[in-house]
Specification:
Layout (H helix, E strand, L loop, with lengths): L7 H18 L1 E5 H18 L4 H11 L1 H18 L8 E6 L9 E6 L1
Antiparallel strand pairs: 1-3, 2-3
Helix pairs in contact: 1-4, 2-3, 2-4, 3-4
Length: 113
């Protein structure tokens, strides 16, 4: 697991923020390491959201946190749950991009399939 130079709460906040941005926009540009770390986080939420029951909804809201989490959970369950109902997994893809000009970090785009 990558630490990103943050404590546990900071890493969780980063993943929540990236996940909510991905849910809202359906594709985001970020560093390759962040994209690779976000992928299992978001795919577990979608797999849980495909069930659509109350327990799954509450778990997705808890993982995303806050009022934004409720909006994100609604989109996961209603939109992505229906879209990926027959798909057994692999809801996202990561495209590698050229390195960032400022610090030469490896960049990537993560998007829903």
């Amino acid at each position: 697991m990558r630490k990103f130079g943050r404590d546990r709460a900071g890493r969780l906040a980063l993943m929540r923020s990236l996940a909510l941005a991905l849910i809202k926009e359906e594709h985001i540009k970020t560093t390759e390491a962040r994209a690779k770390e976000l992928r299992p986080f978001i795919e577990k939420l979608i797999t849980r959201g495909r069930k659509g029951d109350v327990a799954s909804r509450r778990l997705v809201i808890a993982r995303l946190g806050g009022i934004e989490g409720e909006e994100g959970a609604k989109k996961i369950i209603e939109d992505f749950g229906a879209r990926y109902q027959s798909r057994p997994g692999g809801y996202t893809r990561v495209f590698k991009l050229p390195r960032r000009a400022g610090d030469a970090s490896k960049m990537a785009v993560i998007e829903f399939v």
